[in-house]
Design brief:
The structure holds 2 protein chains of 2 kinds.
Chain A: H1 3-18, H2 35-58, H3 63-73, H4 77-93, H5 98-101, H6 105-108, H7 113-127, H8 129-146, H9 149-182, H10 189-210, H11 213-221, H12 237-246, H13 250-278, H14 290-293, H15 298-302, H16 307-322, H17 327-370, H18 381-384, H19 389-418, H20 423-451, H21 465-491, H22 499-527
Chain B: E1 21-32, E2 35-46, E3 50-54, H1 61-69, E4 76-81, E5 84-85, H2 90-95, E6 97-100, H3 112-122, H4 127-140, H5 156-168, E7 174-178, H6 186-203, E8 206-210, H7 214-220, E9 223-228, E10 231-236, H8 238-244, H9 252-259, H10 266-273
Parallel strand pairs in B: 3-8, 3-9, 6-7, 7-8
Antiparallel strand pairs in B: 1-2, 1-4, 4-5, 9-10
Classes of the chains: A mainly alpha, B alpha/beta.
Chain lengths: 533, 274
């Protein structure tokens, strides 16, 4: 492995990532250079160090207490680093197109698969260092005051190893999903497409859960009666090593820590093998029988859509299950549902109704917000087609609502089964989550019509970041304006389910929905006056 | 409009006189900030005629074509399609137009067949007609057998063929083609050129055709309009432009370079050769 080449490639990949944002697209800008991250790291480290240091001076805590606090925190920091990079990587790195992620170039440049994996993992890990620098900066004054500086240095080193480990795991997910996205490509028809989408979601979910500290430790507790099983899980060796180190067993601690470093080296080797085995430079081919593509859209026609509107809906739904960059959008609600099933009894029926309603609404909002920008430059085709802005709006709303409403109904049934709710309550809950999903679909389209980002970027953002934040914040307020009174009306204490709450829920949903529909319509009409790019 | 088989071989253009206009652009201007992309552009495309829109890079050709289709809103001037202002009933107007953009942005997650099916739905083509026509084009442009592969796996030429089929399948009365022969292999380029001639002379389709390959423009265009820095610097038949430029006996390339003020390139070539 040529380390100089790895370093150069990693630098290019980091720059490519940094320039994906609107504000940093100018290569001469400071924010477009990899050094900027080091400056952020330093600022985050020093900022956290100063704040915590000042706090320690004003609060009198004994050094023994501080040492205990630091020793309690140290073992988890490397694990947090792995989980943070893996989760963020699945959310953001997998959306990168090969064109921008530099992975295409690696197929024809004189770079070995291992070198590419090492460089790409380093680039991913480096992108997420500011958050860890902040944590380490805050922990340093505690460690110094507690007299455990040596342990701190060990912990910091292992945290950096953890960051890199997270990056390697993201590379493994990337290579494996690439394989999964072409697996079964010989299968004909829609079932093959759905099968592939489900496989991808399950794969990412498995990776996400396997390295989620809360889930992992909870899972291991089931085996605690068989003794300490953490030694058998290499991902936990840092934690185990640091625990042994702070409890005085330095030799065992050092052995586990070295074992962790060796394990990451092995992961790099494995990731290289996976890349060779599973990377598919050529695009996957999906075979569809001519009969499928020529049969029309009878179901969508039944919903009252014109052939042109139905064609847009059908195209959007196909894109939804075929495009790798849409996977994180699919994974988020699945992860949230799995968490609910695991933790559902702790939340109670009221909390679960709110949770599921929120997931359905959030899913609809996310889809609606990205529904226009995800077409990128292909969106200009609509301007040449004989179709009105309103027809495109109807089609976009339907394409979002179909999966959102199916998901909402499925979730309502899951909650109903878990808590043995009556069929009436389940039906009312379906209506409530559906209302939330419809409202947030319209709300998302209001923003999508005005603030979509059609640019080809290394990391597609589909909507301008400020608009995304605004839409999420205001959308959540609207959603809870419907869900909270609705959930009280359904499941509140006896006597709470007043007609007033039902009227409020419906009235609020109708008023907000009408306003959103109006703004979405005017937004689409304005959007179609002239191509926005 | 009658069915048009993909037939090779030149066809004589129909007489120009008394043809209705497919497209009229009158005094169209468009600015992007301080950049004047189009300045008082006026020209027309009669039915059954192929008009070449020529000009150096950045002359405003693509902006003009986008303005015709409503992708770009002109600051002033009027564009009429088939005698009616383009804004009066844009949906009906677009139903009669086929457009190939300079860089077709196709949905890469669809197969070629699915994409063409989608476009046919946009134009309201019934299913049996679309199947017959699309198959005819796929065969004629040698794409048959590739239509069920994802577009992301297509070469540039294959994508261009898909964009061409998408523009032609609904039998438009006006074709707006921005560099339509980009990336096509010689056979497909020949088929496309002859097809355009057929459509113009037999079916009365008006064609606005942009290209940088002046030999192609000279071979198939009835008239050319030359844009430079957003302004029409010349328009008419190639022969008329040749006379106007005082270059009788020269090719369109010489005429173009003279009219766009880029004629004497000897110093440039000499500097580059060193």
């Amino acid at each position: 492995m040529n380390l100089h080449r790895v370093g150069r490639l990693a630098g290019i990949l980091v720059a490519s990532q940094m320039r994906s944002g609107r504000s940093s697209s100018d290569p001469r800008s400071f924010f477009g250079r990899p050094h900027a991250i080091a400056v952020f790291d330093l600022a985050a480290f020093l900022g956290a160090f100063a704040v915590v240091g000042w706090g320690l001076r004003s609060v009198a805590l004994g050094s023994a207490n501080l040492a205990t606090l630091a020793n309690d925190l140290f073992p988890f920091l490397p694990l947090v680093a792995v989980a943070a990079v893996l989760i963020a990587g699945v959310m953001f790195e997998l959306t990168n197109t090969a064109k921008f992620s530099g992975s295409d170039a690696a197929n024809w440049l004189p770079i070995t698969p291992s070198e590419y994996v090492a460089a790409s993992s380093a680039a991913i890990a480096y992108s997420y260092t500011p958050a860890i620098a902040f944590l380490l900066g805050g922990l340093l004054p505690i460690a110094l005051a507690g007299g455990v500086a040596a342990t701190y240095v060990l912990c910091a080193g292992l945290t950096v190893v953890g960051l890199y480990e997270g990056g390697v795991l993201v590379e493994m997910v990337r290579a494996t999903t690439q394989r999964a996205s072409s697996f079964g490509s010989g299968r004909r028809g829609q079932l093959g497409i759905l099968f592939r989408a489900a496989l991808l979601v399950l794969l990412i979910l498995a990776f996400d859960l396997a390295f989620n500290p809360v889930f992992l430790l909870g899972f291991l507790q089931h085996f605690s009666s068989y003794g300490d099983v953490t030694a058998l899980v290499p991902f936990l060796w840092s934690t185990r090593g640091l625990s042994a180190w702070v409890s005085g067993d330095r030799l065992l601690g050092a052995a586990f820590c070295l074992g962790q470093v060796g394990f990451v080296g092995m992961l790099v080797y494995l990731a290289g093998l996976l890349r060779v085995r599973f990377w598919v430079p050529a695009a996957a081919e999906v075979q569809l029988s001519p009969a499928v593509s020529a049969r029309g859209h009878p179901f969508l026609a039944m919903l009252g859509l014109s052939p042109a509107e139905a064609a847009i809906v059908s195209k959007d739904l196909r894109g939804f299950v075929r495009r790798r960059e849409m996977l994180p959008t699919l994974v988020v609600p699945v992860v949230l549902i799995v968490l609910l099933i695991v933790e559902g009894t702790a939340l109670g029926s009221f909390g679960s109704v709110l949770w599921m309603g929120w997931v359905a609404g959030f899913f609809a909002l996310l889809l609606a917000l990205t529904s226009v920008g995800q077409e990128r430059r292909s969106f200009q085709s609509y301007y040449a087609y004989p179709i009105t802005a309103r027809a495109v709006l109807r089609a976009k709303a339907t394409a979002v609502l179909l999966p959102a409403l199916v998901g909402a109904a499925a979730m309502a049934i899951v909650v109903g089964v878990i808590f043995a709710l009556s069929p009436f309550v389940i039906a009312a809950f379906v209506l409530l989550t559906a209302t939330g999903a419809v409202l947030l679909t319209l709300w998302g389209l209001v923003f999508a019509a005005r603030f979509s980002d059609f640019q080809d970027r290394p990391r597609p953002q589909y909507l301008r970041p400020g608009a995304m934040l605004g839409a999420m914040g205001s959308g959540m307020i609207l959603l809870f304006g419907v869900l909270v009174p609705g959930a009280f009306a359904l499941l509140g204490p006896r006597g709470t389910a007043s007609a007033g709450l039902v009227v409020w829920t419906l009235g609020f949903a109708l008023a907000a929905g009408a306003l959103a529909a109006h703004w979405a319509r005017t937004g689409f009409e304005r959007l179609f006056r002239e191509i926005p790019f | 409009m009658s069915a048009t088989p993909l037939r090779e071989g030149p066809v004589s253009p129909a007489p120009v006189l008394s043809r209705p206009l497919s497209l009229e652009a009158n005094g169209v201007s468009k600015s992007y900030g301080v950049v004047r992309a189009l300045v008082d552009v006026t020209f027309s495309v009669p039915a059954g005629e192929i008009v070449g829109l020529l000009g150096p890079n950045g002359a405003g050709k693509s902006t003009m074509m986008k303005s015709i289709l409503g992708l770009v809103h002109p600051d002033s001037g009027e564009i009429r399609l088939f005698g009616r202002p383009v804004g009066a009933d844009p949906v009906s107007a677009k139903r009669q137009v086929g457009y190939v953009p300079e860089s077709p942005s196709l949905y890469e997650f669809l197969t070629g067949a699915e994409y063409l099916d989608f476009v046919a739905d946009m134009y309201g083509l019934d299913r049996s007609t679309r199947r017959e026509r699309i198959q005819q084009f796929l065969t004629g442009l040698e794409l048959a057998g590739h239509e069920n592969a994802l577009i992301s796996g297509y070469s540039q030429g294959m994508k261009q063929k898909v964009a061409l089929i998408a523009a032609l399948a609904h039998r438009p009365r006006l074709l707006i083609l921005d560099e339509p022969l980009n990336g096509l292999d010689p056979r497909s380029a020949r088929v496309t050129k002859d097809l355009l001639r057929n459509l113009a002379s037999r079916d009365g389709v008006g064609v606005l055709f942009s290209t940088h390959v002046l030999e192609i423009a000279e071979a198939i265009c009835d008239r050319v309009v030359i844009l430079n820095r957003g302004q029409v610097v010349a328009s008419g038949t190639v022969a008329a432009l040749r006379d106007r430029a005082g270059l009788a006996g020269s090719g369109l390339e010489e005429v173009f370079l003279t009219l766009t003020g880029t004629g004497d390139l000897r110093d440039v070539v000499s500097a580059l050769a060193h």
